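Worked example 3 (structure in, sequence out).
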């Protein structure tokens, strides 16, 4: 079985802003960005496809396949009261505490990374149990969900989730054989 993890393309929001579950739009370059992702996957026929319900993923998914199922387990993490705030305007002591242990500490009025990650990992494991050896599944999602799944596949602590990049518009491939997970490539 093959599972392809695709991150949405660039968003129309400066890096100075904190965002997660907010439904921000894609950057003006989205047509060209999406075309590049389509080119990467052009010769692959998918058995099934799932997407985060946020518009930045749905827009990409609709160009890749027809009728992707919207799945809440693939949403980006909520950053609670920090959503759409400038990083520099956040309480810096609170931000430092969170950054020191983002796995267990949550932003104000949100969830921690451990609780968030469990949703996408459980969904991924369910796909692995449901589909057969010759199936190909497409997941269009966000950095947080993809990092969670990759940490799970590589048996890494979630504390290492930000030790690798998940680029905008990237494709990562996981193969599953007899219950064994193997990361074939990251950020194609």
């Amino acid at each position: 079985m093959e599972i392809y993890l695709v991150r949405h393309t660039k968003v129309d929001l400066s890096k100075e802003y904190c965002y997660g579950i907010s439904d921000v739009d894609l950057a003006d370059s989205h047509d060209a960005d999406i075309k590049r992702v389509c080119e990467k996957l052009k010769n692959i026929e998918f058995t099934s496809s799932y997407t985060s319900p946020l518009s930045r993923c749905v827009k990409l998914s609709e160009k890749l396949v027809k009728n992707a199922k919207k799945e809440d387990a693939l949403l980006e993490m909520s950053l609670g009261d920090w959503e759409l705030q400038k990083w520099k305007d956040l309480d810096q002591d609170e931000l430092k505490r969170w950054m020191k242990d983002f796995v267990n500490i949550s932003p104000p009025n949100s969830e921690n990374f451990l609780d968030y990650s469990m949703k996408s990992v459980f969904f991924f494991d369910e796909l692995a149990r449901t589909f057969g050896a010759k199936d190909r599944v497409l997941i269009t999602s966000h950095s947080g969900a993809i990092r969670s799944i990759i940490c799970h596949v590589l048996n890494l602590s979630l504390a290492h989730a930000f030790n690798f990049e998940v680029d905008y518009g990237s494709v990562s491939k996981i193969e599953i054989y007899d219950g064994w997970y193997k990361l074939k490539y990251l950020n194609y």
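Notes: The longest strand covers residues 171-177. The mean pLDDT is 97.
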